[in-house]
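Box 3.1 A note on notation
Throughout this textbook, protein chains are presented in two layers. The first layer is the amino acid sequence; the second is a token string describing backbone geometry. Keep the layers aligned when reading.
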Amino acid sequence: MKKWILSGMMISALGLSACSSSAVLKSDAGNITQDDLYQAMKTKYGTDTLQQLAIEKVLSNKYSVSNSEVDAQVKKVKEQLGDQFLSTLQQYGYADEKAYRKTVKLNLLEEKAVFKTIKVTDKELKNAYTDYKPEIKARHILVSDEAKANDIAAKLKAGAKFEDLAKENSEDTATASNGGDLGWFGTGVMDADFEKAAFALEKNQISAPVKTSYGYHIIQVLDKKKKQSFDELKKTLTNQVKESKMTEDKILKVLKSEFKDANVSISDKDLKNAVNFSSSSSLSQ
């Protein structure tokens, strides 16, 4: 998840005229003018915010991202985070879903620009198809203590209901109230050790306790999707291979090229670094 914060207040402040002297705050101790506010916010946030606005402006001129594409990405995150969706966004600095959607759109614009430069071979696609695992639907119970995990596993073998034990014991607060339901997910989403165990299970099979960096999980696979043919999956596989090659260096190289083609220039010398795309740039996955 990218940590860019597109604050409405910040964008508005940068839109103020630098020469304005209108007071935005008045007090007996003195006033704060629009110019004071602009200069303060420009110093603290200006370069990063201008860079984000510029990237969206430049890339939107050549590439398009539909509302449905943004909806699909947001839906995936909502399914993964459940009731913790909004609180997690706030932890990453987003005021609300609207602010997060702006970042999703920006990420998709970058993706389209970079994907255009990445080649995929037939061999890579065939290897990706061999490794491809269809989505599964699963639920889990997470506890921090191995002895407790073994006790829960024993209760399940004795016939206890999975959903009841999840509600009573799971430390995953995002899923416990739903009986541990994780919904549908594919590879590359969950913890690697969790995924290895989950995708090895048959439908309705319950795992022994699985240790990950989060604790001990007991996993049950509720359903599995059937693997589609190579032709049906070719577009999905192509995007997956391209995404695996989408490094920060590639993103920066493409952005430099796009900005050069668009003849981008900055008149405010204090913000000139907004077009200085380097490894220390504000870009962050």
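DSSP finds eleven helices and six strands in the chain. Strands lie at 23-25, 32-33, 136-143, 181-185, 210-212, 215-224.
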